[in-house]
């Protein structure tokens, strides 16, 4: 990071991280067959998550233009709908769809998140660019171009998550969606090195959304559209930068006023390894259950136990769930759960449903299932505690 006298008006060189992200987004050539193969699966998986979300009115009512009827012929299409929107709103709609059911891919590290959230901005910009090029007589982007952009966005988000814990200072992981999407879509749009640096600096200066909407007692549906909001904001930053709007070279390191001092307790952001294709090659898919990832194994255990206990639910006196520290901190919840977003972030709920019904689907977070008295009775006899070995191995790189 650059060091600079905060009293001096002399403009510093850009922070090293801003430069690294810009150079990677613009210049890195992805040549990993494994990364491309995984990205292809990731694209299909993410679109499927979005299509499934279209069955839920709570999601679909948020899609489309901000002002009804404000469409953009030739703009970005929203898969599974008839919407044609400007790329900023297209990114919001696509991003909200793919995240809505908490079913798309996951990356676990000091910070966790869902790197395919970046597809909101990537798909919106790719469709807009391709349609624009065809109208101008040029060739559209290929799917391989989209996969390469996905690999880069996954890498930026995932590598920055390895050692930087934004949740520890109360910030939501979608900050990394905004940063990764900004770098990648600005490069996709043909941004120069300086323009990408400027765009990414503005993405950091936005600060971070609070995690309020992910935790009791305020858990709510914003957690399902927060990533759409982040990736759409990234597209906005990209288009502003392409108009040669200025950036802020020490956005991260500036004393008193920079991201690190204001929001990261003065710690320098860690950049532990060179950017390549590591994250896409190692990303996790939620193959089985639309559930917050820290509960996946507990759900699997409950599914295994279902045949043995389904006929004896009323005889269960106590259930002990051992998990890693992040699981305790994020999804250990007691008392009444307010809505589906609350339920898919409650490990007790996600264990109770498969014990009783032998399944856990997105529909199982709705009121019709939550109102079954057996669910809350089972929750009331559960104890959630940390297993320190689980925590150590959760954070271990190997």
Quaternary structure of the protein: single chain
Gross morphology? globular
Helix content: 40-55%
β-sheet strand percentage: under 5%
Major sheet size, sense and barrel closure:
2 strands, antiparallel
Number of helices: 18
Poorly predicted parts: none
- Overall mean pLDDT stands at 95
Rg for CA atoms: 22 Å
Strand order of the largest sheet: 1-2
Instruction: Sketch the topology as an H/E string, one letter per element.
Output: HHHEEHHHHHHHHHEHHHHHEH
Classification by helices and strands:
mainly alpha
Q: How many beta-strand segments?
A: 4
**What is the first-to-last residue Cα distance?**
28 Å
Task: Describe, in short, the structure shown.
The chain has 398 residues and is mainly α.
Question: What does this protein structure show overall?
Answer:
The protein contains 18 helices and four strands. The strands form two sheets. The chain has a two-stranded antiparallel sheet with strand order 1-2. The chain has a two-stranded parallel sheet with strand order 3-4. Helix 5 (119-135) packs across helix 9. The mean pLDDT is 95. A hairpin with a 6-residue loop joins strand 1 and strand 2 (84-85). It has 398 residues and is mostly helical. The radius of gyration is 22 Å and the shape is globular.
């Amino acid at each position: 990071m650059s060091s600079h006298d905060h009293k001096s008006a002399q403009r510093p060189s850009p922070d090293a991280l801003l430069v690294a992200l810009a150079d990677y987004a613009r210049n890195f050539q992805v040549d990993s067959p494994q990364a491309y193969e995984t990205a292809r699966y990731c694209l299909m998986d993410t679109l499927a998550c979005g299509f499934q979300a279209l069955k839920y009115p709570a999601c679909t009512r948020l899609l489309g233009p901000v002002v009804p009827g404000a469409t953009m012929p030739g703009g970005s299409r929203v898969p599974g709908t008839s919407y044609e929107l400007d790329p900023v709103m297209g990114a919001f709609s696509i991003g909200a769809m793919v995240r809505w059911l908490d079913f798309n891919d996951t990356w676990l590290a000091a910070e966790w998140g869902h790197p395919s959230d970046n597809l909101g901005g990537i798909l919106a910009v790719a469709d807009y660019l391709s349609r624009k090029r065809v109208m101008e007589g040029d060739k559209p982007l290929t799917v391989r171009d989209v996969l390469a952009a996905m690999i880069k966005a996954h890498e930026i988000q995932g590598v920055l998550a390895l050692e930087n814990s934004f949740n520890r200072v109360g910030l939501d992981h979608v900050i990394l969606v905004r940063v990764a999407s900004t770098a990648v879509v600005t490069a996709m749009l043909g941004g120069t090195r300086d323009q990408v640096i400027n765009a990414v600096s503005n993405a950091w200066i936005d600060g971070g959304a609070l995690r309020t909407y992910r935790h009791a007692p305020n858990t709510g549906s914003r957690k399902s559209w927060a990533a759409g909001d982040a990736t759409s904001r990234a597209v906005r930053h990209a288009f502003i930068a392409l108009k040669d709007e200025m950036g802020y070279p020490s956005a991260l390191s500036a004393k008193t006023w920079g991201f690190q001092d204001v929001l990261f307790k003065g710690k320098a952001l860690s950049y532990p390894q060179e950017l390549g294709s590591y994250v896409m090659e190692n990303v996790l898919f939620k193959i089985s259950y639309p559930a917050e990832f820290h509960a996946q194994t507990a759900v699997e255990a409950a599914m295994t136990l279902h045949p043995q206990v389904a006929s004896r639910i009323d005889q269960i006196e106590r259930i002990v769930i051992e998990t890693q520290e992040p699981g305790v901190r994020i999804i250990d919840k007691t008392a009444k759960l307010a809505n589906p977003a609350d339920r898919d972030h409650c490990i007790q709920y996600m264990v109770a449903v498969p014990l009783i019904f032998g399944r856990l689907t997105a529909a199982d977070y709705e009121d019709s299932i939550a109102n079954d008295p057996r669910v809350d009775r089972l929750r009331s006899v559960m104890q959630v505690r940390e297993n320190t070995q689980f925590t150590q191995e959760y954070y271990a790189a190997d």
